[in-house]
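Hey, can you fold this one?
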Amino acid sequence: MDFYQLIKTRRSVRKYLDKPVEEEKLIRVLNAARVAPSGKNIQAWKFIVVRDQELKKKIVVAAKGQKSLDEAYCIIVCCVDETRAYQGHGNYMSSFAVDGAIALDHLILAAHYEGLGTCWIGAFFEDQVKETLKIPDPYRVVAMTPLGYAAMEPKDLGRKPLEEIISFDGWE
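Sure. Predicted structure:
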């Protein structure tokens, strides 16, 4: 599939098969995150691959009961060191959240290319995730995703038309 078809067809998967992901696919997907751009190329991220069933159950609780996390082969948690990330993003903030989002997006697109499902998870209690996985300060949990084989084809929920979200040469 070409790149534009890839980004157009990627969907959030919330039901997973009880089927392991091949190690070579997992490594390729993780490598896609590794090569993502970051502010000043600092790469202040770390990805935790959670396969342990007991830890996954604790993550489900920390993620407000999102059971798809437990159903998937693994959960990938994106963490970024807030103090090491580029501090001049927009000249007003750290780039930690943006850096993590870009890397996780690379991972999610690579997963779709490999025939795997994912779902961006931003609803969670960070303190619980950090405690469960022993994530030290100053790392922040940016987001996470289940990763595995989809049990069903997710629906296309549609997108706004381009003319509704684009303006040229200033705010219109």
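Strands lie at 45-50, 74-81, 117-118, 139-148. Let me know if you want another pass with a different chain boundary.
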